[in-house]
Specification:
The protein is mostly helical and 232 residues long. Helices cover 76% and strands 0% of the residues.
Length: 232
């Protein structure tokens, strides 16, 4: 065996996938930068083009790195949510929120399998903290939400909060990603409730969202073991 062949990932399908993964990740960061810059500049056309490209690129990177299928599925359902939320109507918003909800179910299933592989379960203290934050936020925002969105947003918030809490099973990167996802959607909810917003609110929503998905992906890839169960 030559020295080149002996290096892990230097040859074969795994090595080729690894070489493709880096350009895809670079493309993700470039598109993310373009999207955020477009939002700051008020260039809506840039956002309309860049946003739908983000999650397919991140999902492609994850797949090339041998990520669990549930992670790839979660990212692609996030892409579905991104696309529907570009439309400015209630039906598209609800469909997009539903797509994100399915993505959170994928994350929760993946995190549950992580606990079954010897990783420590998500701390109950952290879960209690998330529960308090969720209850306080819902109590404050409830009167300002449109009546037809109150129940769907509450159910979605419960699912998202559970995902954010359980993300810690895959380490600090995933835990930070879950928290940022919760923050990003909380910013969207305050916009729906017509609370006072920071300058360029869409920029902050996308910044926290992009960081959340990237950190969740990094956390899962960092902790994911080489030997995987079929279908994972």
């Amino acid at each position: 065996m030559t020295a080149t062949a002996a290096r892990p990932g230097s040859t074969g399908a795994g090595g080729r996938a690894e070489r493709f993964a880096r350009p895809v990740l670079l493309a993700f960061f470039l598109v993310a930068a373009a999207d955020l810059a477009g939002l700051l500049a008020g260039a809506e056309a840039v956002h309309l083009v860049a946003k739908p490209l983000l999650m397919p690129l991140l999902a492609g990177y994850a797949a090339l790195r041998g990520a669990p299928r549930l992670l790839v599925a979660a990212l692609l359902f996030g892409w579905g949510g991104d696309v529907f939320l570009l439309a400015d109507n209630d039906l598209a918003f609800l469909v997009g929120m539903g797509s994100f909800a399915v993505g959170h179910v994928c994350y929760l299933t993946l995190f549950g399998r992580g606990e079954g592989r010897g990783r420590a379960p998500a701390p109950l203290v952290t879960g209690g903290g998330y529960a308090v934050v969720l209850v306080v936020f819902l109590v404050l925002i409830w009167p300002d939400l449109p009546g037809d969105l109150r129940i769907p947003l509450t159910g979605y918030s419960l699912l998202l909060t559970a995902m954010a809490w359980r993300a810690g099973v895959f380490g600090p990167y995933a835990a930070a990603g879950g928290a940022l996802f919760l923050l990003s959607d909380a910013l969207i909810a305050t916009g729906i409730a017509e609370w006072p917003q920071a300058p360029a609110p869409d920029f902050w929503v996308m910044l926290t969202y992009i960081a959340a998905q990237a950190l969740l992906t990094l956390g899962v890839l960092t902790k994911h073991k080489t030997k995987r169960k079929p279908g994972e």
